[in-house]
Design goal:
The structure is a homotetramer. By secondary structure, chain A is an alpha/beta fold. Chain A has helices at 60-68, 80-83, 87-96, 102-112, 117-129, 140-152, 179-185, 198-206, 223-227, 234-252, 267-275, 285-288, 323-328, 340-350, 356-359, 375-381; strands at residues 3-6, 9-13, 20-23, 27-29, 38-40, 43-45, 49-51, 72-76, 135-138, 157-161, 168-170, 190-195, 211-214, 258-261, 280-283, 298-299, 315-316, 363-366. The first copy, chain A, contains 16 helices and 18 strands. The first copy, chain A, is globular and about 55 Å long.
């Protein structure tokens, strides 16, 4: 399927959420009978949705609620929660700051206060004491130190995340993050990302990752595409990594789940990500729009605070409802951002998928969602 | 024609109305000589247009007018007409309600009053007494009970409609709707939908359906795509189901018509649906824009009233003219929403199709209707 | 190159102006040395541009100017000029009328006054007396009668135009327009259109047409697409008809030029039409934007006045300059609507084409002109 | 890979910046270790970025700064700097002029003052005296005369630029620019452009060009496309020319770098251009947006001043920061227009490319950047 783009240069066509859709077949299943549970690091979760380690999306309280609802939330150990005692006040400041100069403002707030191991421990204990599953995230260069504090505090799952996470790293000045050693030595499961591509995923699984985050510059229009030229639409990225997962499982007998992370905006995208091969999805802004989110109505990315090359800014996400309504409904909006679990169940039922593994094989079509004048008329039909 | 979207995942490309166009050949036929009649359940109709079972589109009076004009209208037996004695007043309330909170408002109105068999009978008798063809629609879980009342009142055609209608349904808690038994036992023809795909269509035909509604999340941008990720553009969906119809006819000698339902906005879409293989089309908002429509100027979908996962909201469709002008002209707008029959006749004549079966084989091209700066200039040419 | 759109339905991909571009090669020719002359009906024209028979584009005076500049203009014998003594006053009324109800207004003005043979003669004599080439256009059902008057007045070229012009026509009530007889008996060359497709074009050439107008619903978004579903993008339509022309020439030794008509907005489109195989182009709104046009600043189509199914309305085209500036420059706009001949010459020179026949074979690429954020930056580069 | 567009007409699909993206693999390299140096005309440059010979982008002072930062700037010898003693004042006038009539205003300013060899010498000496590399550009018909003055003043690199630059040129009235003789006789390396296509590029290399500028009407929406119909998207154009470069190198042992010129808006485009095969890129408006640029906040193209067929106008580019911040950072915007070198380094590191030659072979995918509703949500994810 290689396409010549010019001269001897070839490329494959990659597909994103808006370019595909799912096709019902001859069997429909009662949505209540659908099994959407999944396993990560030996732990079973009722719903395949993870709140992303964004400062605007996850604080300890939200992590607890997320656990109660059957999902998982990841706390950012490089962010405000690990730098400021009164994190909530700082997050509110960011939410309240004017748009003009917001990148500088965020850069300064992150630079002004170093990460404190004591704060790491305190945040994790807040989650554990309330009965939640404590999952945390750190960048490769901060992971070793953060992990010591986190493990001491009783963390359950550890995420290591960078823009492009690979086993192999070359540098003349800094030492490599030892993925395999880290995974082997950590007393808890380690999830690594973000990645795209069969080979990189397979190598991370060989290195001992308990889960893989899939997604590098996934959106159709996203900052990594503009700044770096890098980015793979999520349907293709997920399908590539799923092939690695399935091959790894066949050869090694270990099923390492892959989690599609980035670019997911609604229930339809969740269904498509899983249909492309994902075992679960990670959501950022959709969760940041919960009433319980730390910086009500706002979100910003991990790379916003980059000192010399910020990618992403603070955006307004609004407040769509309680976390429970967003995940389990009822929805009082029709844009697919509420009752995500209900939507996934109904989608799977309509597609005849008994569980997530079957959902990974439902029929998919390429059907671009191009803007159309007929939008309002089509919506009125209701059956569509 | 399978395309690799990533890893081992494959998908076919599917096409919608805005991506195709029809191509004239060397023969032109006088539009007045074109035969656009078709058969449904042993009954002949002069025009291949059905008004959809939306509360904002069809009440008994409109059904009568539709019959007089040679078409057919389907009354929703799960809607306001079957729940409220003074349905028109309730429908007017919905039309008058503010947009803010409209989904809640509709949800409440539908939940507040149960379906009454007596009202079902009364509505059907209103249609029959005025000489109209009485066609009604119910969801699978309400169909049995509604059918009893409807048959008693002398209904002519019975539609069973759900988001995805199939012969096979699995549930641990509720019993399956027995499609084949229902079709066999009903004293009137039963039309079933909505469906997409060769296999599901073929199975419904084997189960005894007298007609099939084609269309699941058909629009380019529609709520099912956003909420569930599910949806098949109508040109491809129609062509797939048409292949099942033709094969079923060849093997069983029974010609079961397929009706493209959803996403049709104008005369051009009607022509394209039939050229893709449809025997007739079902229109919602275009009919809801008739002066005689029950909720003047507004329409909403069957799934708008869903309690936990509404898909679609109330939209303003405006009033474009009398039902007669919309169907038979004259048009005083140039956007293809009026004189639909005149447009279909002229299209078939220009394409050299003597009847609908020949229209199903005219030349089709893939020619995306992308937005273009030249829009106004092109329109001015007039010949285009 | 057939693509399956679903089931057993196949379609070819067709291309429009905005989807292709032309590619320079290793030879550049001085623009002044390029030969852009062409032959129509035994007559040589210096420039391959014809003003379309739209009431808003061509009156006798403009036809004379067009002849003086080396082009050709076609007068509409079914329009205002043939119906009203003081045509200019009526055209000004149309230009001055409010947008609200404009279609009705135009319908009424055309219906109120019948075509008068005396006016036909007078208009043609105005052109001839001033030394212009007199070309006129009529619909098939009015052509016979109009031709008598036109020939008597000394017309030079006769166009017969309908939405879809073919040799074969079936009707139970009206007699067929005898294309072959008409062409044979007319004392002047007869140009016929509009058509698309190899077969229809070849048949018209066999019937004796001296030229063929190519284009049915050509624009990306145009009324025929919306109302009828019919339309072929011009690059593909032109290339199809060019193949018929070349084959006809090879077998019969007669070179019948084809004229791309519809959807052309700027110099780039003219270049592309010829590169796709056209011998000349027909322009409507671009000419209607001339200061000398009959209804300054406005244009409307032949099908706008259709009583029961109007396709197209009156649009504002503005005034871009004198007809001479539009055709020969200098341009004082950079949007490609002025100095069309200069642009064609520069394009042909840059592409190494000595004449129009060579221009029909320059390298073409498929390169969609999608809207892009980078628009303004790209324009600033200037070299692009 | 030829596609039939209609009849016997074929075309290749060509790709632009917004249609492709780059894909990380299993290796990441420290961005600080990446080698982005390159050679042009025997001279080594630290960064592969050239400021284009636009009057709004380059004056002698900016050329010096550009040299200091490791790049190169080209001074336009046909522009204001070579025509007016007090060039800065004239440039400021252009920046200050109202938009209305700006093309005329620019046309007049260029026509009013002839190019003066003395000014050419003075500008070059200003650059040389301050320690900069002096690169200049002239059109083919002015190159001979300009070169005499430039060489006398000690110029380092000479660019000959026209819309379509080829070895072969035909004219009945003016003599051909002798590319091969000019390159052979010039005491400094001669870079020629602009070109697209394997054959034209190969011929220019045979003629002795020391570098090739790639790009004719590159943008998705650009004036050459609209006015002339000519234009090749840059990814395909670059890959075609890169194939010629590699073949020429293999046969002749001389590596002639190719420079992608036009349509580049951000760091992502730079990465993609090199990944398509470029050795360096040329930037116009991005440089014109530097605080040090000659006409602060504005830019216009070489073809804007064309007397009879202007292509491009003056556009507002704004001021994004100092030239140093634009090239080396830090960025305080997230749109990819600042810290271009940092972005290229990070992109190459993330893609596992040690140097530009390796960057030319990283994995590329076709992934259209279509406008999407999800834009803001995706950006918020930050990881994307």
């Amino acid at each position: 399927m290689d396409i010549v783009v010019g001269g001897r240069r070839k490329a494959k066509r990659a597909y994103g959420f808006d370019e595909v859709a799912l096709v019902p077949g001859p069997l429909v299943i009662d949505a209540r009978d659908v099994d959407i549970s999944w396993m990560l690091g030996g732990r079973k979760f009722d719903i395949p949705i993870i709140a992303a380690a964004l400062d605007g999306a996850v604080n300890p309280a939200l992590a607890v609620t997320m656990s109660e609802l059957g999902g998982l939330a990841v706390l950012n150990l490089d962010g405000i929660q690990a730098r400021y005692e009164d994190a909530e006040a700082v997050l509110q400041k960011i939410a309240d700051a004017p748009s003009e100069g917001i990148i500088h403002y965020i850069q300064d707030l992150y630079a002004a206060a170093p990460v404190q191991p004591e704060l790491i421990k305190r945040r994790i204990r807040q989650i554990k004491d309330a009965g939640g599953v404590a999952a945390v995230s750190a960048a490769p260069h901060t992971a070793q130190k953060a992990a010591e504090a986190a493990v001491e505090a009783g963390v359950d799952l550890f995420f290591v995340q960078s823009t492009v996470g690979t086993v192999r790293f070359e540098s003349s000045t800094i030492s490599q993050f030892p993925v395999a050693d880290f995974c082997k030595n950590a007393p808890v499961p380690v999830i690594v990302g973000n990645t795209v591509g069969y080979q990189a995923t397979y190598e991370l699984m060989e290195a001992g990752a308990a889960g893989i985050l899939v997604g590098v510059g996934p959106g159709h229009i996203c900052t990594s595409r503009k700044v770096l030229g890098i980015g793979v639409p999520q349907i293709s990225a997920t399908a590539d990594c799923a092939a690695a997962r399935d091959d790894f499982f066949e050869k090694n007998g270990k099923y390492i789940p892959i989690i599609t992370d980035g670019g997911i905006r609604n229930g339809g995208d969740i269904s498509k990500a899983i249909a492309a091969g994902a075992d679960a999805v990670m959501l950022g802004s959709t969760i940041a729009a919960a009433a319980e989110a730390p910086a009500p109505g706002y979100s910003w990315g991990m790379a916003t605070s980059s000192a010399d090359l910020p990618r992403g800014t603070r955006i307004k996400v609004g407040v769509s409802g309680s976390l429970k309504d967003i995940l389990l409904g009822p929805a009082h909006k029709d844009d697919g951002t509420m009752n995500l679990v209900g939507a996934l169940r109904l989608a799977m039922g309509s597609l005849g998928a008994h569980n997530l593994r079957e959902m990974q094989t439902v029929e998919m079509i390429i059907a671009p969602a191009i803007a159309s004048e007929g939008k309002s008329l089509q919506r009125a039909q209701g059956v569509g």
